[in-house]
Amino acid sequence: MRRTLSTLGLAGVLLATVASAPTTPASARGEAARDRPRATDRPIVIAHRGASGYRPEHTLEAYRLAIRMGADFIEPDLVATRDGVLVARHENEISGTTDVADRPEFVDRRSTRSIDGVSVTGWFTEDFTLAELKTLRAKERLPQVRPTNTAFDGQFQVPTLQEVIELARAESRRLGRTIGIYPETKHPTYFRSIGLPLEEPLVAVLRRNGLTSRRDAVIIQSFETANLRRLSRLTDVRLVQLLDAAGRPYDFTVAGDPRSYADLARPAGLKWISTYADGIGTNKNLLVPRDAAGNLRAPSTVVRDAHRAGLIVHAWTFRAENQFLPADFRIGTDPNARGAIQAEYELFYGLGLDGVFSDHPDTAVAARLGLG
Ligand code: G3P
Ligand code: CA
Prior knowledge:
The structure is a single chain. By secondary structure, this protein is of the alpha/beta class. It has one domain (26-81, 158-368): TIM Barrel, CATH 3.20.20.190. It is 31% helix and 14% strand. It has 15 helices and 13 strands. The longest helix has 15 residues, at 161-175. Bound molecules: SN-glycerol-3-phosphate and calcium ion. Calcium ion binds at residues 75, 77, 184.
């Protein structure tokens, strides 16, 4: 196996401090993880697309605010430009998060593509050079849910991965604490198919910034498996396999592999993941399922099973508004009003997971204080 227990401790916040951790045989990994409620000292707080509950997502300003709020990691989702530069966007179709549709100079770039088997119409990062993309401005994805965030529409650029790394580095120096980055490769099979693979440029950018070791404050994530397995051969930085509550990795669909995310969340699947990755990043509904009315059911055994397989467990996505919360924690009937997000964190932290992706990192940090 590529991974060892030293990579698990790993998952701690002070990533640089595990440099001298002894390497433990893979056979002992599960035993050690079983003995602890979580694989790490405390759950880390990962700013999901930045502090996206307060600023347009995937902007330097959203990341900066998240760091001010106490986030340990900032999360750039990554797609490629026409000239092969990695930039932070959740989708390669950018009309939902930028002003591209209002730009007459780009009207002829509108097109329809098949992305992971789904027909999508709009404007795609792979049709824009970085210089062209930099003329666009970000806008709030959820203006109905987060109307105050629209005050920032039109102000911020689409950042490159390099700019995100530089921000994390500068803020780490300024604050005297390590801010990690948690990049996600978006649509890796698709991007490779059009001659713009994500993995080699990602590893190259990390290497140029001296980020090559499992002890560095970097975790790479993907919903696909083949590109993580490729990455496990290209770099020693930590890797996390994302697991959704339904469906299957797109590379499995392409390869004819019948396994689903649910299969990968079972002990045999987790054991397989541990051969190439350090952890799982799960839809939180895999950890605590909900019934048809949105009420919480009994927790699954996924956290325990993953720890037994030597994997850390991070869950997504924690959002403060009622419509994203289980029915148990909603307050009032306004779907856009804040619910009892602290109670949701208390529930999930109590399961022993190792980190949370949050749109509102201040709330995740505040709830963590209660762990004492
Ligand atoms: O990467 C964890 C979580 O962000 C996965 O969902 O769709 O927000 O990238 P998504
Ligand atoms: Ca993501």
